[in-house]
Amino acid sequence: MAKKNISEEDSRFEGIHGVHKIKIGDILIMAVLVLLCLTCVMPFVHLLAKSLSSNTAVLSKSVYFWPKGFNISAYRSLFLDGQMTHAMIYSVELTIIFTVLGMIVCTCAAYPLSKKRLKGRGVISILLMLTMYFSAGLIPSYLLMKQLNLLNTMWVLILPLIFSPYNMLIMKSFFQSSIPDSLEESAFLDGATNFKILFRIVLPLSKPIIATLSLFYAVGRWNSYADAKYYITRKALQPIQYLLSNMVKSAADSATSLSEAAQVTSTPEVYQAAAVMFATIPIMCIYPFLQKYFVKGVMVGAVKG
Amino acid sequence: MEKKKMEVAPMPRKKGLAVYFKRDWQLYVLLIFPIACVILFNYMAYPGLRMAFMDYKPAKGYSGSEWVGFETFQKIFRDKDFLRALKNSLIFNFLDLLVGFPMPILLALLLNELRYPKFKKLTQTILYLPHFLSWVIIGSVALYLFKPSTGLVNIWLMNMGVIKEGIPFLSEKWHWAVTYLLIYVWQTMGWGTIIYLAAITGINGELYEAADIDGANRWQKIWSITLPSIKGTIVTLLIMNLGRVMGSNFERLDSFDNVQVRDFQYQLAIYIYDKGLSGGNYSRATAVGLFQSLTGLILVLATDKFAKMLGEDGLI
Fold first, then answer.
1. Inter-chain touch B201–A8, beta carbons under 8 Å
2. Are A163 and B123 inside 8 Å of each other by CB?
3. How does pLDDT run across B60-70, given as a tens digit for each residue?
4. B123-139: per-residue pLDDT in tens?
5. In DSSP terms, which residues pair with B55 in a beta bridge?
6. What is the β-pairing status of strands B66-67 and B54-55?
7. What residues 217-236 of chain B have any CB closer than 8 A to a CB of chain A?
8. Which chain A residue shows the shortest CA-CA distance from B169?
9. pTM listed for this prediction
């Protein structure tokens, strides 16, 4: 079921429905979907508009989906604020290192485990998968990180998470379902080693899954901040999402205190909107390019191995 | 050496262990890295769970702290904060399932009815987007939309004259509960459709053609072909989700945190963070964590067994 891809699905529907005329039902369905899409897009258009407006326009509550008193001073002060730009660059570095290491470890686990002939496969699978179902919890993990001298280092945000059982399962299913055994057999006959087969044959054929899982790894790292909150107290090592969370928190408390005065003295909304857009834009940039791969990747993963 | 390998490949079963390792030792070398990772960062944390049975004092360490048996567990079940966190977690997880589970199915059925591949693709791309946004971003966007006096939605409603004062979507606990749940539905609905759309793709097209000939309308086709065909997927996913009712997402709760809504927002992940890392009560937080992990594991195993009993694919 999962092997078919979206384009096949599309063509099938043309085949089924193509001959009919458009009915009221179709228009209604499209209207509902357009409305749902708008709920996904418009909040960000609103935020973008606010981030590009003047402070006074925002305070007078007249900014909807188009900037008023257009200026980029919020973004300028964002770039001038050393902490924000530092956090941004740091988060990009962190995400790249995490994704590369994560993909390496993931492949190292998924490739051998995709081989049915591997002796000890069952035991090793259980060893690797158990962590998905039973975690030691926050405090034991915290003390372990302390013991390993990882607190307040960049590595505490990388190493504990680079092996992801979920991503490994997806990759393993892909290897099993999409790479024919005969290819490997003939490579063995030619005297190729396992390493050679992996690098020369399997990986070049696995671009869709590599793209998908890289996206998952990168987005996962980029988006989380809980571990930074647990393990990191040094300002220089806090990723951008964590800074954002602190900013939003103070804004939320001032907003719910219901006094307008508190809102004026807290971080200006324009600046906050710019900061949120700043942290969202990297995802919006890579998302469309990887999007064509990940649906297929996810569907392969849906058939568990 | 080359010659030997050539013999090995076609009939590996007949050869001994030595030959097997000669060919496949590299696979074990690869496995060293992930195994080292899980041992170092996951398994090494398990011994720390003994804190749950101790009166752990950070200054004294494991050796200096006293063993107290199940006393900590007895304490947490008398702890009002814990009981509130547990109750909230269960109620909100159940509500998540109730309102969040049907939406991807409905949406997949709607997407499936679309006739224009390009429109469909664009719609899907946009609907998947919230899945890739962090809870911080979602939380702050929610703030921009729902603040009582300056939020977009409230400004609109006030301008239209529907309401006189801003609705406290995020700062009054009952309103907060609804907003919090609906935002979850919004965030998960698009991504959730993928698996159903995949299942729908697997349906035999001839069924629809036959129904067309019989003059079946859209609803009849959905009701008697599409839904019954994806029933297995629905049941499997429902059961998998039931296995997660003990879970608790710290970032999601933390991003919708404010002073006015603690009554509902105080759930297990928040309790563990508050009592443990912030409050320094390590034993209690560990005990709650262990309770959560164990019941979670039992639920997953039970639901997996149940799924297999019903003849569906399990998840383990």
1. yes
2. no
3. 888 888 899 89
4. 998 999 999 999 999 99
5. B66
6. antiparallel
7. 218
8. A256
9. 0.86
- What residues of chain B, 289 to 308, have a C-beta less than 8 Å from chain A? 289-290, 292-294, 296-297, 300
> What chain B residue is nearest to A260 in terms of C-alpha separation?
B149
**Positions in chain B whose pLDDT score sits under 70:** 1-15, 313-316
Please give the Cα distance from B106 to A279 (Å, whole number).
32
CATH superfamily, domain B72-131+187-309, is MetI-like (1.10.3720.10)
Nearest C-alpha in B relative to A195: B26
| Interchain contact, B136 vs A225, CB within 8 Å | yes
Look at residue A95 in the predicted model and tell me its pLDDT: 95
Residues of chain A with pLDDT under 50: 1-18, 258-266, 303-305
Question: How far does A135 lie from chain B, in Å, by closest CA?
Answer: 6
Q: Which CATH architecture has domain A73-302?
A: Orthogonal Bundle (1.10)
How is chain B split into domains, by residue range? Answer: 2-64, 72-131+187-309
Per domain, the residue ranges of chain A are 1-71, 73-302
Supply the ipTM of this predicted assembly: 0.86
Q: Which of B51, B76, B129, B195 to mutate to test the interface with A (most CBs of A within 10 A)?
A: B129
